[in-house]
Amino acid sequence: MRLGLFGGSFDPVHYGHLILAEQCREQCQLDEVWFVPARQPPHKFGLGLSSAADRMKMLQLATFDNPVFQVSDIELRRDGLSYTVETLQQVHEQWPDRELFFLLGADSLLDFPNWREPERIVQLAKLVAVNRGGTEIPDKEQLVVQLGRFIFDRVVWVEMPEIKISATDIRQRVRAGRSIRYLVPPAVEQYIKTHALYTEKTSSNPDRSNSVG
């Protein structure tokens, strides 16, 4: 069983996320891809997120028609910041027979040495580096120096179409009353409208914007 783990805030999930996951599934021959919404990403500490329930529901709506895609609440059930190494360790302990792959943008590799226990992460999983739209792929010789040979050799490279969609832009469009059709799946668009997510009212409501599980 080859299992891909795709972490993030997913606030909201959009077609860029889905295309990235599908390209990783195909090119890495993954049996399953788990979308793992973070309770509180370390790099976004102090920033308001939509509630865990809202982000989980949008992910479920976006992935329900793909049996290979699953949504995991493993990080939402843990207190505190969501660290990748802890998630991978927990998955490895519960499902030791699965070969793990951790999906991330190739641009994130430059900062990877600053993550918690980076060498332990690559012992637990291969890193799947994807050239996300609008981001520059780091020079591989520079990465060998930055990461070290041990980590660099655990990187798998995946190409995807250039899709310049961001959750930040989607939230801004909603606040401005602009269309998000074809940026998110229809069910997600309807959920955002029904629950008035990302409007000025909900954005300023601490019970919604800061509730992360």
Describe the protein in words.
- 38% of the residues lie in helices and 15% in strands.
- With 213 residues, it is an alpha/beta fold.
- It has one domain: HUPs (Rossmann fold), CATH 3.40.50.620.
- A six-stranded parallel beta sheet has the order 3-2-1-4-5-6.
- β2 (32-37), α2 (52-63) and β3 (69-71) form a beta-alpha-beta unit.
- It is globular.
- Class by alpha and beta content: alpha/beta
Tell me what portion of residues adopts beta-strand conformation.
Answer: 15-25%
* Rg (C-alpha, Å): 17 Å
How are helices and strands ordered from N to C?
EHEHEHEHEHHEHHHH
Q: Please name the fourth-level CATH homologous superfamily.
A: HUPs
Distance N to C terminus: 30 Å
Index terms:
six-stranded parallel sheet; alpha/beta; 10 helices; 213 residues; disordered C terminus; Rossmann fold
